[in-house]
Amino acid sequence: MAGETRARRDFRHSCVGPSWYNCADDWEILRVTGVGKTERLYYTDSALREFDARVLEVREGSEGCRVYLDRTAFYPASGGQPSDCGTLDGLNVLEVVDEGAAVAHILERAPASTAVHGAISWQRRFDYMQQHTGQHILSAAFEAAAGLKTVSFHMGEEASSIDLDSDRVSQRQIEEAESLANQVVFEDRPVHILFRQADVAQQMDLRKPTAREGEVRLVQVENFDLSACGGTHVSRTGAIGLILVRRIERIRQRVRLEFLCGARCLRAARADFHILAEAGLLLSAAPAKVPELVRKQAADVREALKTNGDLTRRVAQYRARELWASQPQNEGRRIVRHIFEVAERLEARMVAQAAGALDSCVFLVGIKGKPSTLYFAQSAGGAADMGALVKKTCAAFNGKGGGARDFAQGGVMEETKLAEALEYAEGLLTGSRK
Ligand SMILES: [Zn+2]
After folding, report:
1. What is the spatial distance between Cα 32 and Cα 173, in angstroms, rounded to a whole number?
2. DSSP secondary structure letter of residue 260
């Protein structure tokens, strides 16, 4: 297993691309503390929740005060990981900004004392430590199991994602990588933080090369992954709990995989279970039977709709013939005028369509509604022009319409004018109206 992993790593080294600058893990290096610089306590101790520090400087700005400390446990937003929240001397830290050498803490107002006590919101920090370490492992697992490299990474409040340098990934590859990642979690491997000069780091088995110079911070998941990274991580992989790939999306030439780690998996599993249990309840079936039943019910609905459509068409044809027979022939043609209720919409259209197959007739069909609808139709190849007729009628009643010679459709705005509109159209048709 170890030999196999090493061989795969060698392969990974040989296909390093130029786009790593976009990759979260590589964004940060250790910045040595000095005058005006902030010592980043989280670099060596990600589990530190509270600390004491000295205020070096306070700058007033439009967004509040920028407070600079000699040391901080607050992680500033960078490399895809959002910043920590928490308090400085009881004042809320709204945002933490990475300014290169210094870390700025944005507060609504300046602390009263130069000696301050900081406390970070541990729940949020730990959640991001789970997501971030989980990302290292998942990315390494995709390289090891499927030869797929991670080109960018995003951590969100709800879910995180990695973009793989491939336009496709199979379900099998996902499951293999996911299983490997979780195996590394279950083995509870230590996560080491190392500091090395960049030239030394480059000679090591880095998952991707670093463009940084000087001293570089490295995060090592024992015997599995080595990455240059300035983020916060758990100290043993077991603390990640679980890694789950949840969604696959193809974006341009890449595949984006949404994933969850730790407590987020628990919340997602609970939500999934509730959804499934509710679906089971609605179908009076065990959750495991839900897909089969939904598939069957969907097929039944399709079949029922088809039968319903066929029956409606047959009824419409009978009804059309009945309407046709009820009208006297006038100059060799029967003109049918009829208004349908809103609920008969589908049937009404079919009645109009049936006119095409009847001898020497014109159907002037109206359907109530807001707006109301008109269907004008005639026997196939009839002498009149339904398109022109509907257009002219609609124009006279503030509506709009048009269509072909034998079948046309329009809408009149007011339902109460429907009968008048059909009478108007008949007048145009018989020549009693110009
Ligand atoms: Zn990291």
Report:
1. 41
2. E
Contact 65, 107 (CB under 8 A): yes
Q: How confident is the model at residue 13 (pLDDT cuts 50, 70, 90)?
A: very low
* Distance of CA 176 from the midpoint of ligand 1 (Å): 22
Whole-number Å distance between alpha carbons of 148 and 248: 14
Distance 227 CA to ligand 1 centre (A): 7
Rounded Cα–Cα distance for residues 34 and 140 (Å): 35
Taken in order 346, 349, 352, 353, the sign of the CA dihedral is negative
Asked if 95 contacts 36 with a C-beta cutoff of 8 angstroms, the reply is no
- Cα 426 to ligand 1 centre (Å): 78
Residue among 364, 142, 127 at smallest CA distance from 267: 127
Distance separating alpha carbons of residues 147 and 252, to the nearest angstrom: 19
> Which domains can be identified in the chain, with CATH numbers?
2-23+126-271 (3.30.980.10), 30-122 (2.40.30.130), 328-430 (3.10.310.40)
Encode pLDDT of 258-306 as tens digits: 999 999 999 999 999 999 999 999 999 998 999 999 999 999 999 999 9
Q: Which of 17-31, 90-104, 362-376 is predicted with the least confidence, judged by mean pLDDT?
A: 17-31
Going from the Cα of 133 to the center of ligand 1, the distance in angstroms, rounded, reads 6
Whole-number Å distance, alpha carbon 230 to ligand 1 midpoint, is: 6
In this prediction, residues 158-183 reach a mean pLDDT of 96
pTM for the structure as a whole: 0.72
Residues having C-beta closer than 5 Å to ion ligand 1? 25, 132, 229, 231
Q: What's the 132 CA to ligand 1 centre distance in angstroms?
A: 6
Average pLDDT for 44-53 = 95
**Can you give the pLDDT at residue 150?**
96
Output the six-digit token pair for 397: 């009643």
- Reading phi first (left if > 0) and then psi (alpha if -120 to 50, else beta), residue 324 is in alpha
